């Protein structure tokens, strides 16, 4: 077990261990007591026991993609899982066991070519399974296939007492329930996910895209809202405000990605959008051959490394005038690398979810991904996000944990009953607050957990 201590290690080595794997280059000024680079379950168990001996908290890093860098906490022992990677596949039963630091791209890079299977992990190629699944997992085609955490059959967990437990629907059910939607407040360290896989639709993986000038924002948005209910069940739908690569004109980009068993089925699925689209597109394509690999490339370009980020999100009320509520978020971005996303969640948003912590959703998911390069732009870009969200929040029902920063804004992340149950489970399994939990303002949440309530500041 490699341990990099803050007070005795080379400062450069410590700094690299502290934030070298943090994706967001707006790095936090928080300093762990030590960083443990785990390579096995035993290392994780030993690290939790070491924290108990030192009477300090434990933080965990899987992929390092948290926008708010939840893993970097003062006076904690940070367990970095970046060197702890494994994947075992049972192709016959379409299940896999994977460590939390494995990314969706890494897993599918094995599953697709070797087994013809896939797991609907994160859209961004470098998102680790750990944080993604703990937050619920808004993965590929979530609007129809459901949340990625619904395909978690079991988790192996190291508890605050340093015990390794297997948790599923019949064993240690409380931890299994919490592992699907608790986010960073999970009272343990997941060492392994047991995942249900699905066939990869290689022959029918196709996409259509329609790029409109931003002046046609309302017409294009009303169109996409009108066709989403009842649209094909294997097609995900997104609308993005962005500057196309190399372009100077802000555009409204509507993307359909369908995953069918044949090209003919894909064309049939995508045809209603083509037939109903409004005129005026700057560029468009229909039922173009695509792949998960290609989508990862596009997502990587949209979320470049070595940049500064500020992200926020909201579930918009089903009965809201969505184009009006979101207009400010879409028609003016603070930088050319920023983008605003609307993601269709219907019909998943209308069905009863399994019994799990995840419980907040609506038909309309909004996310602001503000991207810039220079520290001098921090205040301007962060202020834009804050001001936009202040005006949108009265029209929301809550937010998704994955794109949130609890230090900045209070809102709801679960149904109230689920929130109360989750905080009770946290206190039961971690009564001393060994695990850092939710990073609220001042990192004060402790065993109390996160308040599940709106705070309007208009």
Low-confidence stretches: none
pLDDT averaged over residues: 97
Q: Please report the distance between the alpha carbons of the first and last residues.
A: 49 Å
Report the sheet-strand fraction.
Answer: 15-25%
Give the C-level CATH assignment of the largest domain. Answer: Alpha Beta
Strands of the widest sheet, in order across it, are 15-12-14-13-17-18-16-19
Radius of gyration: 21 Å
Number of strands: 19
Q: What structural category characterises the helix and strand content?
A: alpha+beta
How many domains, as an integer? 3
Multimeric status of the protein: single chain
What portion of residues is helical?
A: 25-40%
State the helix count.
13
CATH architecture of the largest domain: 3-Layer(aba) Sandwich
CATH topology-level fold name of the largest domain: Vanillyl-alcohol Oxidase, Chain A, domain 3
User: What's the main sheet like?
Assistant: 8 strands, antiparallel
Overall spatial form: globular
Task: Characterize the structure shown.
This protein has three domains: 2-80, Uridine Diphospho-n-acetylenolpyruvylglucosamine Reductase, domain 2, CATH 3.30.43; 87-199, Uridine Diphospho-n-acetylenolpyruvylglucosamine Reductase, domain 3; 204-403, 3-Layer(aba) Sandwich (Vanillyl-alcohol Oxidase, Chain A, domain 3), CATH 3.40.462. The strands form four sheets. An eight-stranded antiparallel sheet has the order 15-12-14-13-17-18-16-19. A five-stranded antiparallel sheet has the order 5-6-10-8-9. The chain is built from 13 helices and 19 strands. The model has no long low-confidence stretch (mean pLDDT 97). The chain has 458 residues and is an alpha+beta fold. A hairpin with an 8-residue loop joins β13 (235-242) and β14. The protein starts with a strand and ends in a 29-residue tail after the last helix. It has helices spanning 11-19, 41-54, 104-115, 129-134, 142-145, 173-179, 217-227, 263-276, 292-302, 322-325, 327-331, 378-392, 416-429; strands at 2-5, 34-37, 57-61, 76-80, 87-90, 95-98, 117-118, 152-158, 164-167, 189-196, 198-199, 204-213, 235-242, 251-260, 283-289, 308-316, 339-344, 364-372, 396-398. This is FAD-binding domain-containing protein. It comes from Aspergillus ellipticus CBS 707.79. InterPro entries: BBE, FAD-bd_PCMH, FAD-bd_PCMH-like_sf, FAD-bd_PCMH_sub2, FAD-linked_Oxidoreductase, Oxid_FAD_bind_N, Oxy_OxRdtase_FAD_BS. Residues 28-200 form the FAD-binding PCMH-type domain.
């Amino acid at each position: 077990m490699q341990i990099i201590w803050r007070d005795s290690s080379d400062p450069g080595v410590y700094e690299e261990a502290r934030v070298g794997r943090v994706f967001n280059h707006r790095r936090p000024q928080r300093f762990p007591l030590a960083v443990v680079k785990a390579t096995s379950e035993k290392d994780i168990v030993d690290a939790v026991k070491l924290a108990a001996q030192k009477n300090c908290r434990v933080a965990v890093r899987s992929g390092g993609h948290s926008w708010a860098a939840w893993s970097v906490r003062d006076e904690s022992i940070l367990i970095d899982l970046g060197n702890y990677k494994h994947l075992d596949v049972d192709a016959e039963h379409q299940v896999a066991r994977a460590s939390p630091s494995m990314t969706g791209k890494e897993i599918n890079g094995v599953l697709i070519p070797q087994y013809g299977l896939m797991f609907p992990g994160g859209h961004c190629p470098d998102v680790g399974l750990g944080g993604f699944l703990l937050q619920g997992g808004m993965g590929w085609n979530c609007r129809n296939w459901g949340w990625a955490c619904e395909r978690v059959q079991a988790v192996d967990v190291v508890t605050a007492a340093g015990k390794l437990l297997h948790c599923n629907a019949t064993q240690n059910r409380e931890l299994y329930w919490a592992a699907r939607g608790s986010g960073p407040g999970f009272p343990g360290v997941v060492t392994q996910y047991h995942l249900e896989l699905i066939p990869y639709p290689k022959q029918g993986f196709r996409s259509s895209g329609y790029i409109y000038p931003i002046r046609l924002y309302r017409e294009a948005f009303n169109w996409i809202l009108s066709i989403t209910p009842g649209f094909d069940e294997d097609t995900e739908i997104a609308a993005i405000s962005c500057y196309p690569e190399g372009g100077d004109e802000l555009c409204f980009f509507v993307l359909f990605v369908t995953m069918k068993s044949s090209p003919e089925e894909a064309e049939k699925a995508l045809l209603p959008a083509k037939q109903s689209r409004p005129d005026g597109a700057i560029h468009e394509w229909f039922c173009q051959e695509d792949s998960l690999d290609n989508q990862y490339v596009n997502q990587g370009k949209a979320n470049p490394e070595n940049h500064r980020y500020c992200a926020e999100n909201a579930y918009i009320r089903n009965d809201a005038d969505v184009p009006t509520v979101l207009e400010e978020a879409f028609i003016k971005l603070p930088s050319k690398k920023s983008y605003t996303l609307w993601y269709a969640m219907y019909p998943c948003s209308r069905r009863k979810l399994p019994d799990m912590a995840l419980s907040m959703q609506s038909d309309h998911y909004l996310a602001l991904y503000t991207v810039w390069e220079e520290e001098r732009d921090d205040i301007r870009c962060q202020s834009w996000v804050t001001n936009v969200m202040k005006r949108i929040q009265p029209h929301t029902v809550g937010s998704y944990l994955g794109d949130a920063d609890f230090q900045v804004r209070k809102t709801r992340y679960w149904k109230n009953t689920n929130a109360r149950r989750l905080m009770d489970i946290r206190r039961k399994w971690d009564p001393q607050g060994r695990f850092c939990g939710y990073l609220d303002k001042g990192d004060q949440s402790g065993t109390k957990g996160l308040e599940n309530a709106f705070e309007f500041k208009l």
